[in-house]
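INPUT
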Amino acid sequence: MSKVGLSLTVAAVAGVTVLTGCSATAGGDDEITVGVIMVGSENDAGYNQAVSDAATALDAQEGVNVIKADQVAENNSVTDTMQSMVDQGAEVIFATSYGYHQYAVDFAKSHPDVVVMHQSGFYEGDSIPDNFGTYWSAGYELVSLGGIAAGEATESDKIGFIYAFPVAQTIANINAFHLGAASVNPNVTTSLVNTSDWCDPVKQKQAVASLTSQGVDVFSQHQDCQSTVIQAAKDADAKVVGYHYDAADIAGDAWLTGSSWNWAPVMIDIVELAQKDEFTGSEYNDNWLGMLSDGNSSLTLADFGPSVDDATKSMIEEHKASIEAGEESIFTGPIKCQDGSLLVAEGETATYADINGFDCLVEGVVGTLPKS
Amino acid sequence: MITIILAGAIATGTAILLPALGELITERAGITNLGTEGAMLGGALAGVMLGIKTGSPWLGILGAIVIGALVSALFAWSVVIRRANQLAAGLIIWFLMLGLTSVIGRSYNGQVLDPIGTLAIPLLSEIPVLGPILFDQSPLVYLGYILIGVIGWVLARTRVGLKVRATGERPLVVAAAGSQPHRIQLLATVIGGGLAGLGGAYLSVGTVGNWSTDMTNGYGFVAVAVVMFSAWRVSWVTVGSVLFGAAIVTASQLQAHGFAINQYLLDALPYVLTLVILVVISARRTSQPEALRAALAPN
Amino acid sequence: MITLENRLPAAHRFKSILPAGKFAGAIPPLVALVAALAIFVVLALVQGSTIDGLINALTKGVFGNPNYLQQVLTKAIPLVLAAVAVTIPARAGLVNVGGEGQLIMGGIVATGVGLALGSSLTGPLVWVVSAAGGALAGALWGGICAALRVWFNAPEGVTTLLMNFIALDIMLFLLYQPWKDPNGSGQPQSRPLEDSAILPMIPGTRISTALLVVIVVVFAAWWLMNKTSWGFKLTVAGGNSEVATRSGLSTVRLSLESMLLGGALAGLGGALNLLGVEGQLRPDVTATFGFVAFLAAFVCRNKVLPTAIVATVFAAILVASNPLQLRAGLDGSATYVLLGLLCLGLAVAPFTARRSS
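OUTPUT
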């Protein structure tokens, strides 16, 4: 390798910088810089796009300057990214991918004056650092409502769920989806296919085809991107329940309902607290879970599709209202695993921590989880 | 279930067959193009971009072929004219295309178009058992059937095919006979790239109807491996592609039936199979084009 | 290598039969590099970046950034070893594209050993055993392909590539099943290594002492390849196997040994990445490193020391992704385009114009 060549290039660049004397665009004194990190592409019409949209809304707030990074892998690179953001003056960082958890925790510990929030994780240590928190919303609440729609819509009594990896939220979602459907349709079964990938359109398509050949006529999924599943379901004359992002326009007649993230209120809240130095000890300095019953869920129910009849709509609205009033929860026992053992005991309601630890699929789900 | 698996094997296998046929031509001429994956990616994205912009998926397919050919033309220039090491150049092209398609494709990530879907051939698709498997597929699958025949025949029976094969075996003889091995190699690689682009578009425009980063997921590499273990014969390339397609589809099917299979084992199975078959075929050692063998050495 | 040209006894006779390609003249490598950079800048501008932003990224994010060097050296730990892992088999005429898989296997075994021993042994012993385990795993992974090549003539350029996919699936299996962290909220990760199993940082820095190991190993590899008779034998065997055999060298054994050693280096890189950088096994810990490393080795024509340096430069480019995204508004995958362009430039305009056989 020509070291001469490399040094010349370096010298040239250095010379240019000295001559042009450029400086970084610095935020104003009162302006707070916030970093947002995503694992996938911010245009995926799914999980990451929801984050990106919230970041844009946050940036529109007065006195807030957002810097975004996407396609950051779930390895030590994200630590470099967080560091780069801090170098640019970031005082709050939102690390929004499941696999960033440990890196976010470690970074928070080594940078006590930066507020680090991890989206979708769950801190299991003894005492949470003063500048760290996780935030999520009880996706399963709305997924269960989608399940009701699915249970009503299915004619074959077979609904399908396509997932990527058996992580805690996915298991909770699968269970909630099925329980919701079963609550209106006791004969329904939920068949599973996993794609071993958060967004692999080819595998998603095959999954839909496999399930369709089994007679499945309503689909939902837990993937980062959902266009393929939606389209494939539509082509197969099946119905679909969306997740992460409102894709009703893609789904057309196939759309039943779905849930989409609106992270902006939470993010704005957190940034305001950080600006006022009131983050430590706040509700977000914890494992924060937005819930319908608390009125602060970041997940909203999408509009209903054309095929959902009024009776179903009002039933779902009723359930939603009752969840919001704290009167019901989809994970109230008795709930049995596939092998008959009790997942949730009679009369008890699973807590966030419980749900995060679910390790079995409920009765009526067809498919298995990898044993760990 | 068997019918579904077989039909799915052909459908999925076509995504490997198309680039594999292209790579077959390329390797017969003595060039190994690991950049096939890059050509597939380029084709997949180009297909979606053009398909959405013009509203016609078929224009997208055409564009994909062109882009795939261009990508492999870049590779061909590097390797045939500039004499770069083939394996390295192929990987470089792949890397480059991975990055380029990610960057250029980012605004297309969430957009969809109507995939070409399947077209049942009247009468033929009603043949019991075989009908739905063979004749209720995407038009691109039917194109694949035609290509198998055409490429097989051209390579084995025509002067053009002879020249291509000779270029891979004895380029000097070809030169002495008045043709130009360099040109033949360039052309063979570009055609291979076009087919790879077609394969990529088959996935994006033909099957799923959208683009997503790295959606070809290594199928281009699988195609290269399939060509190698097929002993450079069209018939075996076809079998290999369908087998691989079957392995992928079976995983999905078994899961949908609720069988408790280890997903990671199933994911690895196609690669393990490819490895085993490759080893068995290599041990025979008879049919590898000479220039190809030389090309597989480093630097 | 046997090329089109030197099948003929006299090169000039070749020239008269086969016309030279239109652009077959020598291109100065520096021109190619500059051209690659220029193309990259044009692409960046087309994508919406600005010259200001790019310069800002370089000044504040790269050259003016006090953390940058440490980040680069940290990333270099697995990259450099994976790159040198390519050079050793290359000397023997073998193509090792299995860096990804060897890094993964090294990481897997280092994690397994580290978790198993972390509480019973302390200090340097755990490090040594874990690292050695990782190196052995990498050696095995590469050795399989070497054996397949030597005994079945299976092209190692393809088998090593396939083994990468298999290694990935093995790792996913372990992380989602037997090794899944019970306290990890379902995350695909192993239990974290105990503090005692983690290598210390170089005092006063945030760089792992693993870097020191890498430096020592690189020099050892250089010495082995260039100053020992084994290295010389390897060069002979890789150059012309007929000459080698006639000289009494066992090309089979040398091929195997070179691939075992190459795999061991990559495995060690994967192990050090776990023990010194990550501390916990996750699916993406070394994602794409194997291929980037291969390109570094290729660009340097498989010479050990330049490869180590270029691998570090490539690490620097990868780390630059952050300022390029954050300050210059580039896409997260832009650095792969940059690397691809630079390598392509060097592939078509290499530093040594002569193709040695």
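end of record. The mean pLDDT of chain B is 88.
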